[in-house]
Structure prediction request, 354 residues.
Amino acid sequence: MRVLQAAAEREHEQVVFFNYPEVGLKAIVGIHNTVLGPSLGGCRMRLYKDEEQAFEDVLRLSEGMTYKSSLAGLDLGGGKSCIIADPHMKEGREELFVQFGKCVEALSGRYIAAEDMGTSVQDVVYMQRETEHLSGRDPADGGGGDPSPWTARGVHGSIVAACERVYGTSDLAGRKVALQGVGHVGMYLLDSLVKAGAAVTICDTNESHLELAKKEYGVEVCGLDDIYDVDCDVYAPCATGQTVNPETVARMKCKIIAGAANNQLSDPGVYNNIEAKEILYCPDFAINSGGVISCAGELQPGGWNEGWVADKVDNIYFTMQRVLDEAQKRGRFTELVAIELAKERIEQRREQGN
Prediction:
């Protein structure tokens, strides 16, 4: 009953569990809302501490995808999946994802899968043997490929929008950024920030990522826990979620939080902590939608088109401006306003009868 209650509290339409021990597949798919269209969201592969953590992750992420697609102006709903397994596994990986492709197919198009943390374009290729309900395909097959560069592009534009509000200029030259995580998205964001003249300090759990970043960009590196103490203008979380909590906010020396990670805030209670320190928070699902926009591009008539994707991703800057305007007008925290705006579009569509 707790499972049903948790799904109902977040207003999920469907949560599905898959278990195929013969290939080591233990997966959860969350479909949050399909009023605007079929749910689209990446497949995350991770070793969770327990199944409850995986379940909570799927619920939070799929709900966030609903708001993300709605704010981005996409006719898509929110979905997400997770596979509880080592993301670095090699032996048996092909068999596992072929089986997961069958699982996605069994949902009859209500959920469209793509790559996410711990998964890749090659994993999508494996799934493609069993289902067409996929995005993030290989460019050789007409897909958009890795959506990470587009996610980074949207986040960069949002950092510019936030700096305009806080510092009165869009020029990032000399701005200090604490970048948490230089994986797929983080590395692309690092590249654009450095090219814009920002001074970036980074951390990451992966030593090879740190070495590459130091070699290519000459950035400063700090410890995983030290990132919260960096004297900076912008804290950009681009790794795991929930790193913005009462304890870390108390240590932050930034005026802006804007990053690519999903579910950055530990819970709504942290709103007060952020506001008390007069930090501008850019809602994660409002600014990191570049990846889902790229994936949505594959579903457009005529297929993936770089111009269509670029226009939509660059519009994230204006979406962030709208959220900030409405937050000021409504006198409410930015994340609450972003959710309200997303829900307003969904309700309008519902009233129109889809």
